[in-house]
Amino acid sequence: MATEEELLAAVEALLEEGEPQLPPPAERSRLRQAAGLTQARLAQILQATPQTVKNWESGRSTPRPPRRQAYQRLLTAWATKYPTA
């Protein structure tokens, strides 16, 4: 069994890795669809254009701060709610 020190060291190492990575583009699309949102509705929520969301989901571009953090949080919550089968 791991000691408290080992667990804390592992957490610190993870935090030093930087920002969490967004899921792959296809997974972004799957999660949005699982949540029942259109690209247009997600764009409205994140104050972006539908084309921007389409680009994120196709891998042509990635969101920049502050949208990136909001999008990451949403995708993380959806991934918990709608896990892959």
Bulk shape: elongated
In percent terms, what proportion of residues is strand? under 5%
What is the terminal-to-terminal distance? Answer: 30 Å
Q: If helices are DSSP runs of H or I spanning 4 or more residues, what is the number of helices?
A: 5
Q: What Rg do the Cα atoms give?
A: 16 Å
Summed over residues and divided by their number, the pLDDT gives a mean of 91
Class of secondary structure makeup: mainly alpha
Helix content bin: 55-70%
Give a count of the beta strands, DSSP E runs of length 2 or more: 0
Low-confidence stretches: none
Please tell me about this protein's structure.
- With 85 residues, the protein is mostly helical.
- It is 64% helix and 0% strand.
- The protein has five helices and no strands.
- The chain has helices spanning 4-16, 25-34, 39-45, 50-58, 67-81.
- Helix 3 crosses helix 4 (50-58).
- The longest helix is centred in the C-terminal third of the chain and has 15 residues, at 67-81.
- It is elongated and about 50 Å long.
- The two termini are 30 Å apart.
- The mean pLDDT is 91.
Please describe the topology of this protein.
Elements: H1 4-16, H2 25-34, H3 39-45, H4 50-58, H5 67-81
Helix pairs in contact: 3-4
Could you provide a short overview of the structure?
With 85 residues, this protein is an all-alpha fold. It has five helices and no strands. It is 64% helix and 0% strand.
Distinctive features:
mainly alpha, 64% helix, elongated, 85 residues
